[in-house]
Design brief:
There is one protein chain. This protein has one domain. The protein is built from seven helices and no strands. Helix 1 runs antiparallel to helix 4, helix 4 runs antiparallel to helix 5 and helix 5 packs antiparallel against helix 6. The longest helix has about 30 residues. The mean pLDDT is about 80.
């Protein structure tokens, strides 16, 4: 069964609109890097104002490194119309979904490893995080809108 594309799925420039759930899923997969950057920025701003406080707790290093590919794809999706040339768009079109799936699986394995290492002291937030990772993985893997979006990503270049 083919996924039918409606005219409402395109913007005024003729580009396929980014599905909101795909954008949110990609932002969720890049959460460790976004938290790291936001905490660094807030610490820098507070230090410039003369407010002293302890450094915030940093995200785990493995989570930080696993969110870099998703953050790059997130940035490329947000700046799609401003890309110079078609090399980056072709990369996102060919490898966007597999990289996001691999990122989600690596983060799920890392989180599962953290849950097993804590024993009975598991946090409800980590269990919810694992459930959200499962949902994001299923969405990227099975969603027709994400498949069509990544297939049609570089048609304008």
């Amino acid at each position: 069964m083919r996924h039918k594309i409606d005219l409402a799925d395109f913007d005024h420039n003729g580009n396929l609109k980014t599905p909101l759930l795909l954008l949110l899923s990609t932002a969720y997969l890049s959460r460790y890097l976004l938290i790291f950057l936001a905490s660094g920025l807030s610490t820098f701003v507070a230090a410039r104002r003369g407010i002293g406080f302890d450094l915030p707790e940093l995200p785990p290093v493995a989570g930080l490194f696993s969110s870099i590919p998703a953050a790059l794809i997130f940035a490329l999706i947000l700046t799609r119309e401003k890309l110079l040339g078609g090399a980056l768009a072709k990369y996102v079109s060919q490898y966007g979904r597999p990289v996001l799936l691999l990122t989600a699986v690596v983060q799920a394995i890392f989180l599962f490893y953290m849950l097993m290492g804590e024993g009975h002291g598991n946090s409800l937030f980590k269990v919810i995080d694992l459930g959200l990772l499962g949902y994001v993985t299923l969405y990227i893997w099975r969603s027709r809108s994400s498949q069509v979006y990544f297939r049609e990503f570089c048609t304008r270049f």
